[in-house]
Amino acid sequence: MSSIDFEKFSKYSKPGPRYTSYPTALEFNSDFSYDSYIEFLENSTENLSLYVHLPFCRSACYFCGCNVVFTSKEEKLSRYITYLKKEIDILAEHIDTSREVTQFHFGGGTPTYYKAFELDEIVSYIKSKFPNWSSDAEISCEIDPRFFNEDQMQVFQKHGFNRISFGVQDLDEKVQKEIHRIQPLQLTKNAVELARKYGINSINVDFIYGLPYQSLETFKQTLALSTELNPDRVAVFNYAHVPWLMRTMRKFDETTLPTPEEKLKIFKYTIDFFESHGYKMIGMDHFAKPEDELFGAIKKGELHRNFQGYTTKGGANLVGIGLTSIGEGSQYYAQNSKDMHAYETALDEGKLPFERGVVLSDDDYLRKAVIMELMANFHIDIKRVEREFEIDFFAYFAEAIEALQEFVEADLMSIDSDEIRVSPTGSLLIRNIAMPFDAYMQKYTQSQKTFSKTV
Ligand SMILES: C[S@@+](CC[C@H](N)C(=O)[O-])C[C@H]1O[C@@H](n2cnc3c(N)ncnc32)[C@H](O)[C@@H]1O
Ligand code: SF4
Fold first, then answer.
1. CB 211 within 8 A of CB 179
2. Residue of 54, 64, 114, 307 with the most ligand 1 atoms within 8 Å of its CB, for mutation
3. Which of the pair, 150 or 2, is modelled with greater confidence?
4. Which end of the chain is more exposed for a tag (fewer CB within 10 A), N or C?
């Protein structure tokens, strides 16, 4: 990566989507009817990717942007299982359950806030209704190392879990105190060792840059310590600061957040650090060892982006189960209710807790393909897009191409008649580079309170 003028770069800091979906969740609406959603479920034939959201956490990490319910009441957790089962029953009525399950993911919240026997109960129930799990299915769980024990790991082993993602965020004491998440390195090491002991050979660790009191110096320390965990994959997320949506983020004194310039320095250092430690950058914010299948996928141009980040398994029908969870089919996105009362009421009435979503237009479908290709592979094969969608790329995307000229002139990307290629330095601005292809961006330029900042 060539040397970077960080000051010049920081001017690109502006609100922008992270493109875990296109159209983004801001476009989800209630025009997508319940009956059409059921029709999509009944007619789809692809493999199944099941996402189960377990939203509960004990206490708030102030940076957290996830859909979380804070509680210390055990009955709330067990009551939720009863409702998950109702939801699974209704889904099984509308989905051909002989379809192969190629992915299963427990997300949260803190899935391991549940006891081992409860996790067992949930997975066993799903397997009883969706019995056809592929022998090489990706079966994963997000784990907060502060809530993880051997009994839970035994349940994961019993059900063939083969991936675990641990949340760490930062290893600096002052940062940990400020974000309200005290998690000593030794505690995380014990959790990683436990997973390794049970044969998990795909371990991911999450970090975040852009948190209060972080600087290049503190983050260098965090990265140096991270090698002791020896993860197979690392995610280093750009902190999405959206205090207008997330109350706990308002606890931060914004003057303690690193500047865009400092953040760029941190991330550039992070890339160099992991590349010099044998990892390869995958997509916008992930790093993987050469043995990892994500690494192979990027070489073959087969990396896909979805709600869980990056994956090699594209094309499956993602079915979201649980409060707020999002499903994705080739032609739609569908989101469950975010309100526990509404979630339960729908299920009590024998209906899925589907609340809103979007059915993709032809234009959405095309733009989704282009944006996801850029976000995953930093590259667009123009001829392939033209063939697949029967369009003249340069005529269709004339405005986007014009808007991208400033990035071309700054040597951050190249555009020729066959391909668009983002340079390694340009990859730091991949969200900015994807935005001109987003047909909905126009209406948000006036408003600041939409997306987190790109830098
Ligand atoms: C849903 S959390 C689940 C992990 C688990 N509850 C834990 O905290 O260890 C998944 C990851 O999202 C990331 N994350 C949460 N809030 C974020 C934010 N505002 N900006 C960027 N990343 C965030 C964190 O790295 C976190 O580990
Ligand atoms: S980061 Fe994880 S543990 Fe912390 S509040 Fe968010 S979901 Fe819960």
1. yes
2. 64
3. 150
4. N
